[in-house]
Write a structure and sequence with these properties.
4 copies of one chain form a homotetramer. By secondary structure, chain A is α/β, with parallel strands linked by helices. Chain A contains 11 helices and 14 strands. Helices cover 28% and strands 20% of the residues of chain A.
């Protein structure tokens, strides 16, 4: 089969998810980078914004308004939450889009308004968006014009939970998700709180009890559970660049066992190229997925009878963002799903 | 009041808790370091084992058998679990001891045998040992000859939980303790798993469902709760030297509220020199206690109604080990409790 | 001798050198913190700016204009270069000052103008300032009203070089100073280049061939050499918080040997409380001085005959900034020079 | 052109260079991994030794004695110095070899004996080995059966220096090489000195004046200079995994200028796929080559007239070891030189 040429624009190419898209797409046989936007740095060569890209031929950055859409087949939108919705609403109908922001992840406008402080400004478009947790939405993604790429925490948390909820093995009323993440998820904006000296050699929780990834998880997990779920979600910032580890405490129901949970996950993901269930007794480590599009899952007995602990790890910039975005593009375009995503994890 | 001179021996001075004891005791006005032991490196000057101690006059290391006990008033024992019990059993009755190992923490010989793979070899001595969680055991510590210094995880986990259990505000049947620790707690032995390249830029859980600090917590929390507790404890290794953060998920009972929990802790610890409850909405950070003997606690509403999240942080080598050990010595000897422990946290 | 009470103001208390002054002064028996300034955050409690200071009673921050100078005996000025000179020129004559900025380090107004892009605005005051490299300027410091605290790189570089130049053992025409520093020297301002993700897991040189610490070193080393020196100075940014390591390549003259260099330094600094020459064959490490006011020096044979390599390490926030500032205060006020500066290095 | 299948054995697959070879070769279209050896862990699946390799089908490790050489076309030898020479001497003549150890890098047996403490045990074989600094030895590499892969420091140091020496622009009698490296170069053996707590938040020089990479550089640079060179080489250990930065201080001769040096390097490496000369004023950073096979060079004016500073960066595990090894294999086999080596640097 001849490999087609996909002419790609990345909106918001000066952030970490933007450059990570470039890292992946530069090795993707079908991708041709045609436009890169960066509003505040328009006109700059990418080699100045990201010197590691200097060896590659890339277009200079432009403002979104300057993109020639007749040359673009596919858009990755890596813009901030809030400004994204109007930008995507203004794109020509012919381009297909994976959006990495939160703007199109929530299907209920009321929930959006509650968590984002005001009404959505592209509600009609929002209704057409497909929530792109790839392994669980392939048919809809294939048909979609606009895919809302899941957040890193929801991806890491929900991939293990969805099969278990569907199997009726865990209590949807008691999901305690303790999440730990490297710092790259916080973005590239100059903030004192993210300085090296403020982050290294220390850790802390943040957004306790009110993180915006919660409604996204409640929405999708309810679909899997066939009814509302009750969850607790606490993210922590860890002094490392990439990697996310989720420790989920679940209550077993319907006679489920720890081994039964592992079996369910193993069966559900047996043929998935990017998901692995690690053997019993092995603890998944973020360093084993660094730079790769993989997610590893481990299942453990809890010291409390009738409970289990599920641990999942991914690289927040790859499977948690840009990697899953490329995976979604591959599905949308009928390309092999692993195309451009076969990197081995970088260790050490 | 004239300051007395306490002649001190540190057994196991070549590890991280040993050198941390030295860091603290070298600034302690009553402490005189008389003997340092290191079995495998006996005869070496401390300046070779820890070059940062070169500027200080310290005795060369010797084997334990070579210590002249007539010159020693007080012993800190920082030896490995298992070998400790016989060493302490062989000490002259006149020296008082703080033991930093796990050997004397469990009061029930059967529980010890279950978790440590065999019977205790100094059961009579074990019966006399006082569990030294300083803030909750001062009278017993004052009178003790042998104090079992608590583990770092139990110290960080239990200081917030004990007042809440005593007040009947949280369910003793549902304590989920998600712990994160820097690497210094793993000790100074040459192990591949603790190499810089194996640890940096990554994280993982370990000992899931079966960490040896669990029985210690069950024992002490049951005393506070007035009955058995059920707990889940999962430690994670984080790429940093010092610092431990505990996220505990609790169920509110007897009409308790999140503010009520914070009030209980604030009242309980109002006069404590080393414990603080941070204001509502503030997340405790390990970097704010680095190098100090302090523990900070925050209380948060859980997204699940009727639940709360309690976060506590300490430096595992100070309040989690050597600092609390010095604090216990101060109590045992009737010295001001903060003597030698007034360091301000090192930040950044 | 009764300990006097020194009423202290810290101007610019919200940066890293400001808080480091507080860490040291809170343990200094003579220091009483009376005023803390922070122009942009005036009115904020220090507990908000630096939560690790929450346990201590400290005045809220004010603007400089709001300080009641009748209550202040001594000022530490930790303000940015350029704005400092006018602030200090406006202080009452009765307060004595240690200035941590570069504003008063260069004695020649022409050199200042060349490197700082314009004429000095307090030239008369500049003429009275004493360059405070403590170990080499005690009499002048004792008498000074205004001491210009040396930069971190000059302190680390010049303490080993001055005795060697004075002894005529090394060629003043060929000093190659390769410097490596942790990130805290770059300050607490929110800059993209200093984000955790931009700094960790990487290193780079900066200011190659034109760093502002060069004229300061040329000025002081020329005094030691009795004539002009020619130096190369290249700083590198290393992914760590604290610590500076200087590798200096020198040419031996007048029959000098490597051992002779070590002897000169050992003799020069034998009675210095904060300086050590490490034994032959031992490599000084920054981690052995972290958090302490110490500087360690090693001398090595170069593979090129007739040359030597001198390595020196310090903590850039302590001996390279706030520690040396407190040391200078002690000298100015006739206090024991080590008062408040006896911390043992924090390791690990 | 059809891609051939190269049947590959990696001897010493349990170390960092071994696993890095696997990371690269698993994405190399011509490579087929047929045998992996690990003497002490023979029989273990790679998934246990390196869990990040679990998703890939790889042979279990065996002892070298158990390899079926009839199935192997090409060998990468990543064994320790000293044991390597006999192993390679025992290989069948038909397999071609890239050796990553130091055993075959020195062409003069006397120099080998001086630096490695005894005579070489495969002198005849040593005579046939080609020193594989790819960009400067392609014809010989193409024809070689055995290529000695250069050390990481020599690769990073010599690639900038060789063209400058050949051009007669720098003084071969005065090369001062100040090297900084991440820790992965120290290997995966369990050593106390390489523990996370011993390495993080600190730096130090090591092997000052006597590092084994010196004779290798003297040998190769003398060839470029057409006569003996005199060099000083001082490596430093930096708290990061990957990355090496070399700061070289050179004296300009024959009227050379800084711009002239940059022009020489730009011209020499214009068509090289993996080498870049960065624009004037830009400082090369290790993070821009992390995980890639690239080397970046910058040239700067020294503050001392008549001197220049050359800075080069690479990833010690890729261009400094396994990447250059694969590049050499490509040359030896007539494959496109960049095959399997087109990864974009991983940042952040």
């Amino acid at each position: 089969m001849p490999i087609p040429t996909i002419r790609i624009a990345i909106l918001g190419a000066s952030g970490y998810t933007g450059t990570e898209l470039l890292r992946l797409l530069l090795c993707h046989p079908a991708a041709e980078i045609r436009a890169l936007t960066a509003e505040r740095q328009a006109g700059k060569p990418m080699a100045e914004i990201f010197p590691q890209l200097a060896p590659f031929k890339l277009p200079d950055t432009v403002k979104i308004a300057a993109v020639d859409w007749s040359e673009i087949d596919f858009v990755f939108c890596a813009l901030p939450h809030g400004t994204t919705q109007e930008v995507i609403a203004g794109l020509p109908a012919a381009v297909r889009v994976v959006d990495l922001s939160a703007d199109f992840r929530l299907s209920d406008p009321a929930v959006y308004a509650e968590w984002y402080g005001g009404p959505h400004r592209a509600v009609a478009l929002q209704r057409t968006a497909v929530y792109g947790l790839t392994e669980h939405a392939r048919p809809a993604i294939r048909a979609a014009r606009l895919v809302a790429n899941p957040g890193c925490y929801p991806t890491a948390s929900m991939l293990p939970l969805i099969p278990l909820l569907k199997a009726g093995q865990i209590d949807p009323g008691s999901l305690i998700i303790d999440a730990k993440s490297g710092v790259s998820g916080a973005g590239r904006d100059a903030k004192q709180a993210n300085l090296f000296c403020e982050i290294s050699e220390g850790m802390a929780a943040y957004g306790v009890g009110r993180h915006r990834h919660m409604p996204e998880m409640e929405q999708e997990l309810a679909l899997a559970a066939g009814g509302p779920v009750s969850l607790s979600f606490t993210p922590h910032l860890i002094p490392m660049n990439r990697g996310e580890l989720i420790t989920t405490y679940v209550r077993l129901i319907n006679g489920a066992t720890v081994d039964g949970l592992r079996d369910t996950l193993t069966a559900a993901y047996r043929d998935e190229p990017f998901l692995s269930v690690v053997p019993a007794g092995v603890a998944p480590q973020t360093r084993h997925v660094r730079g790769s599009n993989r997610l590893h899952i481990g299942v453990f007995a809890d010291h409390r009878p009738g409970h289990a602990i599920v641990i999942s790890v991914l690289d927040n910039l790859v499977k948690g963002a840009s990697g899953q975005a490329v995976q979604n593009m591959n599905v949308m375009l009928g390309l092999p799903e692993t195309m451009g995503l076969e990197q081995v994890a970088l260790f050490p």
